Amino acid sequence: MTMKISTTLNGESVDFLCEPNQTLLEALRDRLGLTGTKEGCGSGDCGACSVIMNGRVVASCLVLAAEAEGAAITTVEGLAKDGVLHPLQQRFLEHAALQCGFCTPGILVAAKALLDANPNPTEAEVRLGLAGNLCRCTGYDKIVRAVFAAAADLRGETVA
Amino acid sequence: MTFLGGQTGQRVVGTRPIRPDGVDKVTGRAIYGADARLPNMLEGRIKRSPHPHARILRIDASRALALEGVKAVVTSDDFVDLPAQEVAAGDGSMDFRSLSLNLMARGKVLYEGHPVAAVAATTGQIAEEALDLIDVEYEALPHVIDIEAAMASGAPVLHDDLFTAGVTPRPEKPSNVAKRIVFAQGDVVAGFAEADVVAEGRYTTEPVHQGYIEPHACVASWNADGQSLIISSSQGAFMVRAYTAKLLGLEIADIRSVPAELGGGFGGKTTVYLEPVALALSRRAGRPVRLVMSREEVFRASGPTSGSVAEVKLGARRDGTIVAAELVFKLQAGAFPGSPVALSGMCALAMYDIPNVLITGYDVVSNRPKVAAYRAPGAPIGSFGTESTMDELARKLGMDPLELREKNGAREGTRTAYGVVHRDIGFLETVRAAKEHPHYRAPLGPNQGRGVAAGFWFNIGGESSAAVNINEDGTASVISPNPDVGGSRASLGMIAAEVLGLPAEKVRTVVGDTASVPYSDMTGGSRVTFSIGTCMVGAAEKVVEQLKQRAAMLWGISPDAVEWKDGAAVPAGPNAGGFEPLPLAEIAAKAGATGGPIGATYSTKVQGAGAGFGVHICDAEVDRETGQVRIVRYTAVQDVGRAIHPSYVEGQIQGGVAQGIGWALNEEYIYGPDGKLQNPGFLDYRVPVASDLPMIEAVMVEVPNPRAPFGLRGVGETPIVPPTPAIANAIRAAIGKRLCSLPMSPPKVVEALDGAGG
């Protein structure tokens, strides 16, 4: 039984069709062509598929596509606005906070949700906020520093 | 070719520009293997053995093929039945017959998860359903998982044709011991007779997985004319092409292998699991096929690296001079021969100058997935026991552990036990930098201990290529043949920019496919920035020669009278003429009038890699109640030769340390008595998360390698070598007990503490 789902995706109204047993991750990647959201485990353990759904970070591999009905969803593709990178994206580049880049979309999304909720986090809060997102390349050091720099940008405190 | 080893004053090298592929990766636009799509594409799935060891009596796919939407099923009949044939591959060697049998079982399954068939269907769901309709009849056989059980007489034998190599006379019966290796120098018996102090121990490690976040993935498309396209995430598009051609009996020119972005490899993607299967399915179905592993498949049937048993004995005179070392390593190879045991033996003592050494190693098969390379393959296994024993030796001698390492440290001309003589190495500089680091003298808190350890990795060269092309507007497009795992597009573009005299952002690096750039060995062995960088210098220097010729033509003077300086042609001296400098962009604009396009490729077998040495300092805090160990401070000092892009060098060091911390404290393959893996997921196979780790300080020592561009050394692998013993030594310092078994997980720490009467 194919279902029709109406959602707000990265600020735009989007309708899509899905099967009742399809995950939001499958719908994003295979129905909507938004392959920036990655599948690393399919069991909610790695965070590569993180998206923001109604203000909360969720593992989209554990959310059914049908649950997106009426929801507001932000994916990595929705972070940059009009061709301008989000401060998190810019600071990740400047701080070399990515190596292979596969976990990066999920970490950016989780970091955005973290800073939306807590604009001035401590190191422990950043580390805890990203504890659901595995990165195997960086050892997290540069990721944590990039999140701090972006947080300062978003608070308007940036020093060059 | 002129290498600028040790020189400073470069304009691009040593700076930190944003990598050329960065924006694609922060916006979700980068295309990884699972993101690739081709028209009319089918989805594939692999049917895997539920048994750790069994004979395949019959495979019947008729029910699966009858399911609507199923387009193809393949089994071992679809692959060439290859003879044994060992060839060089990355850091070690590989055998095509093992590769083929691992890819698709023939006659027997040798581990739980071993592929027996594959299916392609119009949707993933149909392919999934079809797996259950492929009927496989097995005769279960006794299995063996533990390494020493596999070596015991009477153990179930995996391969009837496996006779231990390296022993004379040749054994009469097959066994699970594939190979015995020996490295020896001097006389260990005489050496230990000279020793005043002996430290020894037995150390074990469990298999750990590379744990890249991207599961293996590919799309393969077979055309009616026999030409094929493969898009996949791997550490070598040329490797994918060569292995696929071999396993399917195809001609290399008929396969175009396109590297997708690589979501981490760490050695685990230096082989093929999917591409030949996807292409075989595509050949049967006549449509493109996508194959993507689940995380469970990644754990059950790719990687990991070996588990091991090591016996270590070191002897020293009272003044701290180490006079003898005897090491025995037994490494699991998984279901097919090929553990990195030789590398464990070679790396274990390569930091030291020891006159009498005997190292023996055994490569042992058992009913586990075939091991794959993992970051400095074998070296962390070698260092865990050896560097833990070094710590005990320092304690017995009453000597500072870094002083012990400095006193016995390898230097120019030191001969290793495996015969190579060290040249232009920076081990002593690295030890001294660690000794002088404030971390080494910082106060410790309650229940904290400090440990140090050293490590070595060879770094390699190999067959390599690069292309540099000058564009009409004076920018440059350069091509690397090697998949970029951690910023090599940036470092390679910077090397080309430095030679051309262009700013980094005027040079854009792309990774080419197998049809766009000459052959190159895989991304592995910490070779890419060194080897492809060497070719970038070669290609850029050829381009500079062309630019000088064009300038000479425009000026009407001899090319010998032209020099290249800061991105422009200049007259070599006053006799050459009073011409103003002619910038690259102006020469490029006139390329059409002076002979056509300006560009060059450069290919060679690169040699002269500079060895990497690291010395790590770790502070660990032990929770005496729960046994949990927290790393509270970590400093990793490494000789990097010359950091081309320091941020990505630091990133390699930090990432290697993080993997080492996981290996030390959490990660392990856990098997039940049924021979099945019990933790094939990130929930129960726990890799470090952000909240587990402190900031990791990377200290870059720069002792130039004169045989490399700008003096650089490979950096990616060395940093995973010292962490496990550094952490073990820190725990020893914190609780007064030596843990000799990885991972040093809470139950083992609690057991050690209880044993102490605490």
What is the strand and helix layout of this fold?
The complex is a heterodimer of chains A (160) and B (758).
Chain A: E1 3-9, E2 12-18, H1 24-31, E3 50-53, E4 56-59, E5 72-74, H2 87-94, H3 104-117, H4 123-129, H5 141-154
Parallel strand pairs in A: 1-5
Antiparallel strand pairs in A: 1-2, 3-4, 3-5
Helix pairs in contact in A: 2-5
Chain B: H1 22-26, E1 42-48, E2 54-60, H2 62-66, E3 70-74, E4 86-89, E5 92-95, H3 96-103, E6 108-109, E7 115-121, H4 124-133, E8 135-140, H5 147-151, E9 177-185, H6 188-194, E10 197-205, E11 217-222, E12 228-232, H7 237-248, E13 255-259, H8 275-285, E14 289-292, H9 295-301, E15 308-316, E16 322-334, H10 341-348, E17 356-365, H11 379-397, H12 401-407, H13 427-436, E18 448-457, E19 462-470, E20 476-480, H14 488-500, E21 507-511, H15 528-555, E22 562-565, E23 568-571, E24 582-583, H16 584-589, E25 599-606, E26 612-622, E27 629-639, H17 646-665, E28 696-701, H18 723-735, H19 746-755
Parallel strand pairs in B: 1-14, 12-13, 16-17, 20-21, 27-28
Antiparallel strand pairs in B: 1-7, 2-6, 2-8, 3-7, 4-5, 9-17, 10-15, 11-12, 11-14, 15-16, 18-26, 19-20, 19-25, 22-23, 23-24, 26-27
Helix pairs in contact in B: 7-8, 10-11, 11-18, 12-13, 14-15, 17-18
CATH superfamily of one domain in chain B: Aldehyde oxidase/xanthine dehydrogenase, molybdopterin binding domain
* Secondary structure tally, helices of chain B: 19
Alpha-beta content class of chain B:
alpha+beta
Separation of the first and last Cα atoms of chain B: 64 Å
| Oligomerization status of the protein chains | heterodimer
The CATH topology annotation of one domain in chain B reads as Aldehyde Oxidoreductase, domain 4
- Shape verdict of chain B: globular
Name the shape of chain A in a single word.
Answer: globular
Class derived from helix and strand content of chain A: alpha+beta
Radius of gyration of chain B: 27 Å
Give the total of beta strands of chain B: 28
CATH topology of the largest domain in chain A: Ubiquitin-like (UB roll)
Largest sheet geometry of chain A: 5 strands, mixed
